[in-house]
Amino acid sequence: MGQIASRESTEQTLLDLLARQDEAAIRLIYEQYAGILFNTILRIVRDENSAQDVFQESMLRIWRKHGTYDPARGSFFTWMLSVCKHAAIDMTRTGAYKRRNQPELEEKHMSKAENRSAPEGENSHLREMINLLPEKQKTLIDMAYFHGYTHEEISISLSIPLGTVKTRIRSALIYLRSLL
User: How many CA atoms lie within 13 A of 54 on its CB side?
Assistant: First the structure.
């Protein structure tokens, strides 16, 4: 109980500092939350330099957009985590990120293909079929099958209910099977 009260107290202090535009708020974020926020970003972007860029961008978003935080939707920490996750996911969708990481993704994709003994043409066909999916489903399929996230991890990282994640993935797989 004391730990929860302490966390709530820290979050309230942080919100007060942000409301006053006091730079001590940034120090408090770094002291209390930087490790988990940065590691969450790093897990999504999988590149130290990109993660640092996303972390800095996230800190600016938190500084500028703290007024959009709604206590009825969860703790301030959860809101900050969501800001960081969405910034990281946005980064992975940029053309520059994809070009920079394409060899790594192709290598992972090819090694998975080799394990299944699938011909290379089949893999490019699969990627083309996945590109036909709506963006929401495509992101989930990519995270689950090409990046190895569990349904629970996807739910947490995208702030989507677990049931919705499972339903969207199942719908996407049914659609993909219909194309075969």
Answer: 31
List all residues 6 or more positions away from 154 whose beta carbon is below 8 Å from its beta carbon. Answer: 140, 143, 144, 160, 165
pLDDT digits 0-9 by tens, 11-41: 999 999 999 999 999 999 999 999 999 988 9
Query: Distance of CA 128 to CAs 18, 53, 63, 66, 95, Å?
Result: 46, 31, 40, 40, 17
Q: Tell me: do 28 and 81 sit in the same domain.
A: yes
Q: Which of 169, 46, 175 is nearest to 107 (CA)?
A: 46
Closest to 83 in 3D by CA, of 175, 25, 172, 157: 157
Q: Measuring CA to CA, which residue among 58, 44, 39 is closest to residue 139?
A: 44
Q: Do residues 26 and 59 make contact, with C-beta atoms less than 8 angstroms apart?
A: yes
Structure tokens at 50: 């990109």
* Prediction pTM value: 0.55
Q: Give the domain range for residue 28.
A: 2-92
**Residue 98, in any domain of the structure:** no
Give the domain CATH number at 29. Answer: 1.10.1740.10
